[in-house]
Every structure is written in structure tokens, then in C-alpha cells.
Amino acid sequence: MIKDRLVNSQVYESLSENIKKGFQWLRETNLKEIEPGKYVIDGENLWANVQIYETKPDADYEAHKKYIDIQYMISGNELVGVRDLSDCVSAIAYNRDNDIEFLHAKTEEEFQELNEGEFLLFYPHDAHKPSINPGETKTVKKVVVKALFN
């Protein structure tokens, strides 16, 4: 897991070509004005899902096998649980079509606060629990860029 601000994202572009293109799309897109929905950037290699939602008191962890997540907070803030996949047990088995498995933590949870202008980058070994209330329910606008892990 990597946490940083979008203004520093060029530091991470050498990780993969898909990550580089994902950060370029985030920097070049008017994210304040973009409508919720799916945006194809490079076919199945790279796409983005823009969301507006209310944070919630709790959720399951999730993990992905095919895609890296770049979760960028456009507006608002939330807590995101983060842990290594090895510290989780399966709650709902992996769904290949949706590239997602839901999990429960085996030990005490740790959270990162994701604020406007920041991103969290999750690899397949990073289980994450997004959209958690930071003390109270918040409305957030966030984009999740899905970069094929190769």
C-alpha cells in the first residue's frame, strides 16, 4: 500500500506502465466536474470508476487478484482499513468476473484517513476496507482507477 498526494504521483510512475497511465489520466482529467460512472482509459488494461456515496460505519475488507487499485479522493474524506492479505480470512469467495474477494480481519484493524487530493495504491496482497465513516457520515466523491497487474 502506498499513500500520497496526487501532486507527487510521478514518483510512482516507474512501478508499471498501467500505473503511469492511470496517474496521467487522474492529473489530466477535470475530476471536480466528472460525472459518476465507468471511464475506459486503455481497454481492459486500465479503467476508472467515479463514485459519489455516503460513508458507512463498517464494511468487509476486499482484495483483487487481477487489478491494482488507485483510490483517489476528489472531495470529502473517509477512513480505509488496510492490512496484508495474509492477515485475513475469506468471508465471500473470490469472484473472477468482478475480480473481488471479501474478507474479515484476523487481528485488530488499522485505518488510513483518505482526504481530498490524496490517493491510496493497493496491490493484490493489500486487503482494504474503503468508505468508512471518519467519526460521522460524509458524502464523498472518489475515483478508483483499476490498473491491470502484470
Task: Summarize the structure in words.
β7 (88-95) and β8 (100-105) form a beta hairpin. The chain has a single domain, classed as YhcH/YjgK/YiaL (Jelly Rolls, Sandwich), CATH 2.60.120. It is mostly beta strands. The chain is globular and about 40 Å long. 8% of the residues lie in helices and 53% in strands. The two termini are 17 Å apart. The strands form three sheets. The protein has a six-stranded antiparallel β-sheet, covered by helices on one side.
State the CATH topology.
Answer: Jelly Rolls
**Could you say which overall geometry the principal axes of the C-alpha atoms support?**
globular
Summed up, the helix count is 1
Distance between the termini: 17 Å
| Tally of separate domains | 1
What's the CATH class, please? Mainly Beta
Q: What is the mean pLDDT?
A: 97
Structural class assignment: mainly beta
Tell me the strand percentage band.
Answer: over 45%
Query: What proportion of the residues is helical, as a percent range?
Result: under 10%
CATH fourth-tier homologous superfamily: YhcH/YjgK/YiaL
Largest sheet: number of strands, sense, barrel closure: 6 strands, antiparallel
Low-confidence blocks of residues: none
What's the CATH architecture? Sandwich
Q: How would you write the strand order of the largest sheet?
A: 1-10-5-12-3-2
Task: Tell me the Rg in angstroms.
Answer: 15 Å
Total DSSP E strands = 12
What is the H/E order?
A: EHEEEEEEEEEEE
What would the keywords be for this entry?
150 residues, mainly beta, Jelly Rolls, six-stranded antiparallel sheet, three-stranded antiparallel sheet, 1 helix, 8% helix, 53% strand, globular
